[in-house]
User: Fold these one by one.
Assistant:
Number 1:
Amino acid sequence: MVIRPATPFDLPALRPVFEAAKAIMRADGNLEQWSAPGFPDDSLLLRDIDRGGGYVILRDEISPRASLGRDDKVITPGDGYAVNRSNGSSVISSGAEGGVEKSIVAYFALLPSPEPTYDVIDGAWLTDEPYGVIHRMASYPEVHGIFSTIIDYAAVRYAHLRIDTHRDNRIMQHLIGKHGFTYCGIIWLQDGTERLAYER
């Protein structure tokens, strides 16, 4: 798997990724999170991209490698890549990989502080130091290790990380706890809905 910055050309390939993530939530009893039609909409994803914080994870569709290994490469901004739009698919041709085709299997936003919705918390954050925020994490269910890959990528870039999730998102709560985050309290989104907030 590789990580690279998302581009506007990726938006059509991201819609089925988010729909798959919603299906996972609904199957686990999380009926409210991301329930607005079309959420997250293109304008929100473009805002992530414009801020330099939208990322896609790609998996090699030809190579048998399906997990992050010592020979895999994380593509950083500035590396060459081109979107293969000849057939309208989500397949990517990466110059860094010699034209090996890869498909988008996940998306996440990794943004710098401050996060306005974290200004008020019913509880207490672990630190007042600058932090990175992880939002809008989504992947296909058959692709494993995405959460760990994202946290590893984010931890290299930020000494402190914050993340929040819906009270009914038991899968995410389990993964957050498993990766060393501490529950800090409740925060509220701009629409007034609450989220469980964590930091590490």
Number 2:
Amino acid sequence: MRSKRYKKLPEKTKDLDSESIEKLLPIIKKNCTTKFDESVDLSFKINNKQKKSEVNIRTVVNLPGGTGKNVKVAVVCEDNKTQEAKDAGADIVGSDEFVEKIKSGELNFEKLICTPGMMVKLSKLGKVLGPKGLMPNPKLGSVSENIKEAVTNAKSGQVEIRNDKDGNIGVSIGKKSFHDDQLLKNYHAILDALEKEKSNNTLKGDLIKNTFATSSMGVSYKVKLGKAI
């Protein structure tokens, strides 16, 4: 059943011509009629079906405008690095005892960071951390000797870009309450990251087939990209 609020939103927006994100942001914000601060989200469909292999994208982007979310960050590190992690703003810090808690299924965090030395112990917990997308990864900056930088990035506006098996990527670029300039900076940071990923993959043709923008509880609109990616 659709709510009265939803029925008041524009209909058949997917049938409209694509527009630039600059023109769409005011429209999307106008459709944010819930009582909470809705997210502004992007959905990409990528050209992941290739003759020889599929395109797999997985990277992180530091959004210059932030995310508007308070991310609970946990750090697994050696005892001599615990204070550094706490000073950086980590919510949970621990060593061997913390690894045992994780092993038992205690996953009360949204991002897990560890030092290279502790990764050997965490690598055995793939069945626990993997399905939740919590396994630290050097490529994503979550396995690092520089704990301060890793925690700061995770806290200040870092998002992961990852396509599913059908070639879909979903990512938020901020909140309705954000100024348009913040959202646009985040949007372009995402596109820059995708363009970089395209160059890293042996891909023929465009990486992105189509793009849609919406809010958490709104309707979606086709986005016209400024350039082919």
Number 3:
Amino acid sequence: MKKRKPSRVLPNEIRPIVEFYPLKPVKRKVKWLILDPKLPRDGLIQAELKSAHGIYIFYNSQCRAIYLGKADQLTLWKELTNAFNRKREAQTLFKVLHPITGNAFKPAYKKKRGIRKRHVYLHEIASFMSAYEVGDALIRNLEALLMRAFPNELTNAKMETIEFKTKK
């Protein structure tokens, strides 16, 4: 039996912080927060995210991955919050504007209500999130790998490349 070469990746290079955590967005001034800092458990998670860099995934209500991102320059908390509030052309909904309660109602055959394409924010469509602390040298390649693992599922507009470092 051939002996296996030791791995060059350290066993603790990826550490789960939260997985499939349900989101209850909270509006603070002009931004939406993914967690409510007033809730004890959310406050503890927020503290972990503020001190870590890595990879995060947003999921829709059916637990399908809809957006994947990396936090290599900013902390996971900052990057998650920025992504959660960023308007993206890749994310669209088709919506009909219906009458508001209290206004006179006219049936659709009398007043046409066309279906309109609308760009949405993650805070409007994300229901769950996962976040992983990842070693700095691994973040970019792990994001690129995961993007390839979710083909045609993610709303990300940019495909990242896997970078190789060869020994001289």
Number 4:
Amino acid sequence: MPSSRFSTPRRTLLAALSAAVLAFPLAACGKSEASLQDVHGIDLSGASFGDGFRLKDPDGRVRTLEDFKGKVVMMFFGFTQCPDVCPTALVNASQIKSLLGKDGDDLQVLFITVDPERDTPEVLREYAQAFDPSFLGLYGSLEETAAVAKAYRVYYAKVPTGNSYTMEHTALTYVFDRQGKLRVALRHEQTPEQSVEDIRKVMALN
């Protein structure tokens, strides 16, 4: 895989800023859901944001969180030309599914592109399934992408690079319980083993 254009401190800073943005509304508004104890990620039980989306899969079918009820969902925002953060996150997701053993069948990984101009349905399909055949890429129009990113407090920005561009974006993975409720944000620096511990706690909720 290609080497990263961004330094490790830069990627760490993006993740840290994302965590800070997520923490504030929880402290300010309180939680209505029972908190998860001792997670490695960020406990988002009772979060007042991120309650759904309407995006298309590579077949053009409109997808929502309702489609995945009964499964625990991992959702990551990124783009297929990402040199480091996205492939690392999806490799980790593949390892997480494997480490879960038979419970991996109850896990659905979603990859939402923040670069719909270049990430065509065909590109998204090939990219997501290269990491695992069950992984699903989702996309929307520029306006729909901006709306869903805002709904999940996800930062992204186009950065010019010569005659082209790259994308900066939040490096967190959201985890939803079997009822579609947002529960945890996995940090980019978590190991697959630590993420499995968090996901098993989510699986045990319902």
